[in-house]
Amino acid sequence: QIMKQVPVRFDSKTLHIPAYSVEKLSSMTDTDWNNFLKRVCSLLDSSEKNTGAARSKLNLLYYLCTLAVHKEMASRLISSQLFPTLIQQLRTASNWDIRAKVGRVIGLLALHTSELGENVPVSEAITLLTELIRENFRNSKLKQCLLPALGELLYLIASKEEKGEYPRECWAVPSAAYTVLMRCLREGVRLFHG
Question: Which InterPro entries does the protein's record reference (predicted)?
Answer without folding.
Answer: ARM-like, ARM-type_fold, ULK4
